[in-house]
Amino acid sequence: MCYNDRMQWGEKEQVGMSRTRTETMRRRRASSRRRKLAALNAVLLVAVGVVVAWNVWASNSGGDTADGRPMQESAAGPTPGESEAPDDEAAAPEEPADEMGDDGEGTAGQETSTDGEATEPGAGPGSETPETETPGAGGDGGRVKLAFVGDVLLGEYVGTLLERHGFDYPYTHVKGQLQGADLAIANLETSVTSLGGEKPGKKQYEFRSDPDALPAFKEAGFDLVNLANNHTLDFGPDALRDTMKHLEESELLHVGAGETMDEAYTPVYVEKNGLRIAVFGFTRVVPDVSWKVGKNSLGLAETYDYTEPVKAIKKAAEEADLVVVMAHWGEERAQEPHPEKQVDLGRRFVDAGADLVVGSHPHVLQGFERYGGGWIAYSLGNFIFTKSKDPLTYEAAILEAECGEGGDCSLKLTPYFADTPQPQPMPPERTKELLARLDQLSVGASVDAEGKIEPDDE
Fold this sequence. Notes:
Shape: globular
Number of helices: 9
Structural class: alpha/beta
């Protein structure tokens, strides 16, 4: 598909947002105002309570201060203050086997979606709101800095290098950038389990990583991982449960998997700098239909049928200031997104209220699209992964998005070179070539020589 002829992606109609998204943003702003008003009322009630308590105490003590001088009357209570924030490079490794072959989709690839979409948020999956994480400081009108990377594998040959060089080996050149984000997110392309046993042998590539690798992963700056992909169930349901347990013990949030549909399709909500962020994980690549979450059976949040993801996104868009979707989709090593498996789905997510859609699975970098007021990053490629024979899989990146209320985001891409599982700064000439190629692959957006990604029509 030639990207000079962008009609195959759909015309570049960036004149304005769709009516559906406009209405979603209106409701979101109204919801945000209601939350802020409720918070203000709570502060005022506390202030009134302090004044009343002070007056009662003053009356009981005769109206004198501790040193016997009369207190001066004050018509105003204390002014509410701002909330406080809570407290050597290794030698080149030997060439490993290529572990990125296409697993195939099997019976899971059957399409069940229809053209009919729910026009109003429903009560299905995503209707139960989990506990909100509040690791950052509050404050109205703030902005958040998000950092995204592509596929991460901490086992197989990567695990061998971690044992040799230390669990912090992959993050030498990137941890400063990751730690500088308010929220750093990766696609975790592996089970992380202490359960033993041989590989099941049901797929060509079955990935398992050592739970001891997670503390260094967390220390490097990562906060949240997507589990909705084609490897987290490689070692079966108990290994996925073990993965979620180890993530939680390492204080890492996870999305895209659960014991029930409600759990798997419910986003994680994170509050940072006065903004409420909803993060989803969906996959359109599973090797067997049994991997799909059932109403009351463990599995992954899939999007072969987009109905439930769209419904859940619409609901979250009314409750959050920013909606992020991590999507595992597309075809391995394809530089251009698939029209149905990626482009159509990504646009449906944005129409439903997603502000950022960030893709993985192709193992190579793909272009960006500005659509309907939202952003779609079709694939961020590999970040920490086993080495393949395809040099395009060595191109890694960190995508930074600085966002405000209502999905107002500015994007910047920092390329890295990762022919080993240690992403390193990319040589300038190669960086220039990569960014120019991504610019050509993008629709409704331009990628400049500094990695800034901007809408074509703004």
